[in-house]
């Protein structure tokens, strides 16, 4: 009897100890850091801050945006890849970091597939082909005719050698069957300045930075990328409408985490950020920054990254493009 009582008391005590163990904290129970691999003030930074603000509200935790610019996004992307895979460090991936850079830099410090957990492509932004008002072409068809009749005669401005604006124009010239001289600048602002001033006749640039100059008449837009016309430029046709069915250069801003992120954390972050960017108020803020919400799943974003890698590999190889 005494032995049975002792056994009973021991069992009760054991259950008490088990019950006293602290519960596993629900994710997230502390602030999250979001690394942006480009400087403050640019489109990637704008999308990151808009998405982080709403996602933080939905998660009930602050999301701190940290800019780590340099090497065309490679420094920030490497920092994301090296972080602890616990969900408390995420970052922005772009067509530059996860589409073109892996084919341009032999010593890249990260693998765009193996070193990351894709979470959601948050937003995208179209690109526009524009000319100085004195340029003779008023339509994309006229532009193609002039360029093909004068191989290598004309130049185009872009925001940086090997960037999506440069390679996007190279791809279009491949589709069109023409040749031009690429003039790279350190960002869109100086490229636009020289095009508006007439130093360079043509520019292939991001929609947000070109829009005010198109609306003011200082640039003449010929075509915009994407599958649908932009509501702010309803008369501007898409490249696809103009006959280039397979051509679509979109700047995209996706959320990634380090490889090895637990499945439940992956699902939580993917769902919350997708909900965040598709919130009507957040979508409006993205539109003001020149972007449109996407918010796809982790699997969909993973497949997109692989498609982008294959696409830009082909463009770069076909053009025999090399950074000087």
Order of SSEs? HEHEHEHEEHEHEHEHEEHHEH
The beta-strand count equals: 11
CATH topology of the largest domain: D-Maltodextrin-Binding Protein, domain 2
Assigned CATH architecture of the largest domain:
3-Layer(aba) Sandwich
CATH class bucket of the largest domain: Alpha Beta
User: What's the structural domain tally?
Assistant: 2
Widest sheet: strand ordering: 2-1-3-10-4-11
Helix content, binned percent? 40-55%
Tell the overall outline: globular
**Count of separate DSSP helical elements:** 11
Mean pLDDT: 91
Gyration radius from CA atoms, angstroms: 24 Å
Protein name: Tripartite-type tricarboxylate transporter receptor subunit TctC
Signal peptide: 1-25
Keywords: Receptor, Signal
Family: Belongs to the UPF0065 (bug) family.
Notes on the protein architecture:
There is one protein chain. This protein has about 325 residues and is of the alpha/beta class. The chain has 2 domains: about 30-125 and about 250-320, D-Maltodextrin-Binding Protein, domain 2 (3-Layer(aba) Sandwich); about 125-225, 3-Layer(aba) Sandwich (D-Maltodextrin-Binding Protein, domain 2). Helices cover about 45% and strands about 20% of the residues. It contains 11 helices and 11 strands. The chain has a 6-stranded mixed β-sheet. The protein has a 5-stranded mixed β-sheet with strand order 7-6-8-5-9. α2 packs across α9 and α4 (about 95-105) packs parallel to α11. The protein starts with a helix and ends in a 6-residue tail after the last helix. It comes from Paracandidimonas soli. Belongs to the UPF0065 (bug) family.
């Amino acid at each position: 009897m005494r032995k049975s009582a002792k056994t009973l008391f021991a069992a009760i005590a054991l259950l008490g100890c088990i019950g006293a163990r602290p519960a596993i904290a629900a994710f997230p129970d502390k602030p999250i850091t979001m690394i942006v691999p480009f400087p403050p003030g640019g489109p990637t930074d704008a999308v990151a801050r808009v998405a982080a603000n709403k996602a933080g509200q939905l998660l009930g935790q602050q999301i701190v945006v940290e800019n780590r610019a340099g090497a065309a996004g490679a420094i920030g992307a490497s920092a994301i890849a090296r972080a602890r895979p616990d969900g408390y460090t995420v970052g922005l991936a772009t067509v530059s970091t996860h589409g073109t850079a892996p084919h341009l830099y032999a010593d890249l410090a990260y693998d765009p597939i193996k070193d990351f957990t894709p979470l959601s492509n948050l937003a995208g932004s179209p690109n526009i082909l524009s000319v100085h008002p004195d340029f003779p072409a008023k339509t994309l068809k006229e532009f193609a005719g002039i360029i093909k009749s004068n191989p290598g005669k004309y130049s185009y401005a872009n925001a940086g050698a090997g960037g999506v604006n440069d390679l996007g124009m190279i791809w279009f010239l491949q589709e069109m069957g023409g040749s031009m001289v690429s003039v790279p600048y350190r960002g869109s602002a100086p490229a636009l300045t020289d095009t508006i001033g007439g130093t360079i006749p043509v520019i292939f640039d991001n929609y947000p930075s070109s829009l005010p100059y198109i609306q003011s008449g200082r640039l003449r837009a010929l075509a915009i990328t994407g599958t649908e016309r932009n509501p702010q430029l309803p008369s501007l046709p898409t490249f696809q409408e103009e006959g280039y069915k397979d051509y679509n250069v979109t700047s995209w801003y996706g959320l990634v985490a380090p490889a090895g992120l637990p499945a439940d954390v992956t699902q939580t972050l993917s769902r919350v950020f997708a909900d965040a960017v598709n919130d009507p108020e957040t979508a409006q803020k993205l539109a003001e920054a020149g972007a449109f919400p996407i918010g796809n799943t982790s699997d969909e974003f993973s497949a997109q990254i692989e498609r982008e890698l294959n696409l830009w590999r082909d463009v770069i190889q076909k053009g025999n493009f090399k950074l000087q």
